[in-house]
Amino acid sequence: MFQFIRKKIHNKIVKRKIRRTRLVTKDGHCNIKFGTSEYQNHFAFIMDFWTTFVEIHWCFLIVLFFAAFTGSWFIFGLLWYSLAKSNGDLDRLQNTSESPHLKCIENINSLTTAFLYSLETQTTIGYGSRALTGHCPGTVALLIIQSLMGAIINCFMCGLILAKISLPKRRAKTVTFSKTAVISMWKGNLCLQIRVANLRKTLLIGSQIYGKLLRTTITPEGQTIILDQVNIDFLVDAGKDNLFFVCPLTLYHVIDKSSPFTEMDADTLQQQDFELVVFLDGTAESTSLSCQVRTSFLPWEIQWGYNFLPFISRTKGGKYRVNLSNFSKTEPVVTPHCACCFQNEHNKELILHRHGHEGADNLGFDIIDLQDSLDVNEMGD
Q1: Cα torsion 42, 44, 49, 51: sign
Q2: Phi then psi for 307, rounded to 5 degrees?
Q3: pLDDT digits over 33-44, tens only?
């Protein structure tokens, strides 16, 4: 009992340690900070101002939106006020007995009215009480400049908001991975399996799936490499490129002699220090924009000796249904203790024999009638 409690405490400590070092979160965000202030070239971000503005948070974008318009109205309001004052329009307000004075702008008698005239000019409201007289060439030039600047600000802010709304990573929000990965037998091989689902009916064209195993390694020269990347090839029944992503897919990685998982087993998997990052690249069918979906799995998020429950079925009416309630659910199955155990010919025949009789592969579809529920997505013929 004491050993069991100590093992549980040790596993929790290991999980907390690994959680702190996660590079890619489950929703695909990268947990990384670049260097110190001496290496941060802020001028480069200013030069690439469009990307900088597109990637800022919405709260800063809203502040920028209000600041851009109100700031331009106020600045041009000051210019209109200075023109009116330099022409003597404000000095003539108190003395009406002198000879007629040719005003530059009608009905501008304070800074407030100059601001209102600037707003009306740039937004083309035109209430009619304030207008140019045409006697001052400077006012005509300023009117042209403000009209052009207002058009530029309108185009920039509208384009910025549309670009931010239509970011490809928003499409990635409707693609989800299973919460855990499993290691079990699949079609005669020991495989690491992950599920991915597209929650929209529109396809991701030209989808490609691949993975990276991140871990700390020591070279023969004694140099420590943090976040050393090892390629992990994932496959589906039709290959690894140009996936037909119309329904959730089960991706699998064959654990053979070239796989980094071949040196692990069911007992030592939880004590390993690595992070499996899975990538899905594709082009959204509706917008033709490329997007990438990312997620990661830590050792305690990989279940050895488990298999995913079936999630695709076919009704008697001939329709296919996807039961998302079984998307991340698993069940224990007969699985070799390690890759080396499976590679042994005697154990391999025994495992395949037992595995085939238990039907853990779940080949083919079962014709059943599922009840409608909130967790079931229905796809037409």
Answers
A1: negative
A2: -135, 150
A3: 665 555 556 666
Geometric angle at alpha carbon 211, from 294 and 304, rounded to 5°: 100
The three-class DSSP label of residue 20 is helix
CB 359 within 8 A of CB 304: no
Q: Which candidate, 202, 212, 177, places its Cα nearest to that of 283?
A: 202
> Across the strands, what pairs with 177?
196
Q: What local confidence, expressed as pLDDT, does residue 343 receive?
A: 63
DSSP character string of 197-229? EE-SSS-EEEEEEEEEEEEEEE-TTS-EEEEEE
Distance CA 285, CA 282 (A): 9
Residue 283 has what pLDDT? 82
CB-based contact 248:327 (threshold 8 Å): yes
CB 376 within 8 A of CB 370: yes
> What are the two backbone dihedrals, phi and then psi, of residue 293, each rounded to the nearest 5 degrees?
-110, 135
Q: Which residue has the tokens 């023969």?
A: 220
pLDDT score recorded for residue 78: 94
Q: Going by C-beta distance under 8 Å and a sequence separation of 6 or more, which residues neighbour residue 251? A: 193, 194, 195, 196, 209, 234, 235, 236, 278
Contact 202, 284 (CB under 8 A): yes
SS (H, E, C) 85-117: HHCCCCCCCCCCCCCCCCCCECCCCCHHHHHHH
Name the 3-class secondary structure at 289. Answer: coil
Residues in the chain where the model's pLDDT stays below 70: 1-21, 33-45, 91-99, 237-242, 342-381
Check residue 317 and give its pLDDT. 76
Residue with tokens 């959730």: 248
Query: Which residue type does 127 have?
Result: Y
pLDDT at 205: 79
Distance CA 113, CA 135 (A): 20
| DSSP bridge partners of 377 | 322
